[in-house]
Amino acid sequence: MKRQLVDFIDGWQSRRVMVVGDFMLDHYVYGNAERLSPDAPVPVLSVEREEYRPGGASNVSIYLKALHCDVWCVGVTGKDAAAQELQSQLEHEGCSTQGLAAVDGRPTSVKQSFVGLAQHRHPQKMFRADFERSEPISASMSGKLLDFVAGRLNQVDVLCLEDYDKGVLSQPLCRALIDLAQERGVPVLVDPAAIEDYSKYTGATAITPNRTEAALATGLSVQNDAEVHAVATHLRDTLGLQTVLITLDQHGAVLLEADGAPQAVPTTARTVYDVSGAGDMVLAVLAAARANGADWTTAAQLANVAAGLEVERFGVVPIALEDIHVSLLQLNGDTMGKLRTLDQLHSELNAYRKQGRKIALTNGCFDILHAGHIDMLRGARATADLLVLAVNSDQSIRAIKGANRPIVTEIERVKVLSELECVDYIILFGDGSGGEQDTPRPLLDALQPDVLVKGGDYQHDEVVGWEIVEAYGGRVATIPPVPGVSTTNIVERIRTQHDDGESTG
What we know:
The protein is of the alpha/beta class. The chain has helices spanning 2-10, 57-66, 81-92, 139-152, 171-184, 211-218, 225-239, 278-291, 296-310, 321-336, 342-353, 371-381, 394-401, 410-417, 441-447, 466-471, 487-504; strands at residues 16-21, 23-36, 43-56, 70-77, 96-102, 109-118, 121-131, 158-162, 188-191, 206-207, 243-247, 253-257, 263-265, 359-364, 386-392, 425-429, 451-455, 475-479.
């Protein structure tokens, strides 16, 4: 399945998503917290720096931008410095803020977190102060937001409702938005608030509560799989939903579609550093994936991977599509080893390049692995961030070195080479014709590594393919050989010792 997810991301395209909800600003105050106050048993935070980040629906919006979506933001702010900061950050990320309305007398929601470090390490939230008002916005303001959505909904692939129960997504506005989206054929995905009454979400396409929110909304227990399944079924049937996704922290999620049975969406074990933003990440990935044509299972699996990456980071940090892609490649590598086809390798290397990583490629037969090979491969890996090892196939080696070679088959060679930490990917090449296909030139044309590495006493212009690499801006590196160590010498020593043994026997 991980390979299918990788292939799905390979075809990912930019989509248009509108986010309506509670837009907030997160304010982080960092400092050392290594002593207690002399006048009270409380820690003292020695403030060193401050940082602002989008929060709430703002967070969903920048997550969607990181997933290559065009994003419209619809909600309210105050007429204050926090609103200016929030709008600036959203616009810097490329989000449209035309749908954010400034309201007199209502402060922009700000969550101020005080983060303590010990010896400049191990950040921990010590305390949070909220600056906000959560009463419902006026009917006239709700009407303005609805008019804005109505004027642009035909241009949107998915409508997201991000509800933190801060007054924007009132019962009337939610109902109007969902009804409007149904009329226009636009799916509505809801990240619900922690409230007891979910009736305002009736008729939405999908809802994504966590375990605690689902229990609060239904009044039902969620202590085991059967109870979670019952809660999901209750929400689907009472609210007329197509899909329910209940997230279960380290236990993954449960997905329930309109006509199906509940299915578990497992997660990969990760170190949980900070759960902030995980729910926002789930909504963003579900929306972007569905807009790209994913079925619900694929979308939920991608959302689970992204949420897992999010909790490994402190604070709310956007997880780029490229990060998800690379994570899937790494998970996929755990099950399929390091051997790739050309198409697979091309796709995976492109994902790493988008992260700014450099690629090195070296090639050879590697018939009998020896110390010289190890030194060369370690040196090759040191020239870049990733090393691709192009290995001559059995038929290619026979064409180059004769009918009695290789000594070790390609399957066995790949198995041994895959165990080397310095090797990231392996690809077999060569058709045994003795022509161009038995050289690395076709691979260099297709993969365009940043560095072509060759071991041995080669002059620059003796390295096969150097002109291809330098033509597109790459470079050639050579690694000096270990004197007297080669596969040919090893084979000759074995033969000599064998012959000597027979003659003395």
